[in-house]
Model the fold of this input.
Amino acid sequence: MTPRLFMCALLACLFTATASVSFAQMSAAPDSATAAPDTAAAAPATYTPPPVQAQSSKPPLRDRIYFGGSVVFNMGGDVSTIGVYPMIGYKIRPKWSVGLEAGYEHVTFDDFDQSADNYGGSLFTRYRLIPRMYLHAEYQMINYEVFTSPVASDRDWVPFLLLGGGLSTMVAPRTWAYVEVLFDVLQDNGSPYDDWEPFVSAGIGVGF
Done:
């Protein structure tokens, strides 16, 4: 081989090797058009609703308290009674309530033409069977003026345990009229009433 041909062959080999390396580098370089997405990009924010406060199933206080009063009249036997009893109650459950009652009554004794003024109080509970009918239980203490003679008297506490029920009807928003009939099951010896004489009362209750 002549020196000129050798030089030409050497230059051709160097050119081919250089072109191969350049092509390999171009193939390994990432294409900006097809580059992988940036995994560091922030993910879209998710909305978290605020916590919902639990709604209380218990009615407000004004809907659990009721008040009113009754008028008591009893014209049986030798004793006639007219009384006024204001009361306040609290609903433990929609159908069940408890309450307090105070009272004053004027009593007339027909057998010896005398009268007395009595006072007292009671604890009671009521349970509604249906919207217009309820059961009633009451423990009552009354301070009676007891006549020891036609012209002399003393005072004595007499207990009663009254059981019975009543009927009620709505006469205005949140206002009920009711009438109830109760019987004393204690039958204390100091009671001025005949055995199993009914106690009849009528009244008005607001919120009842």
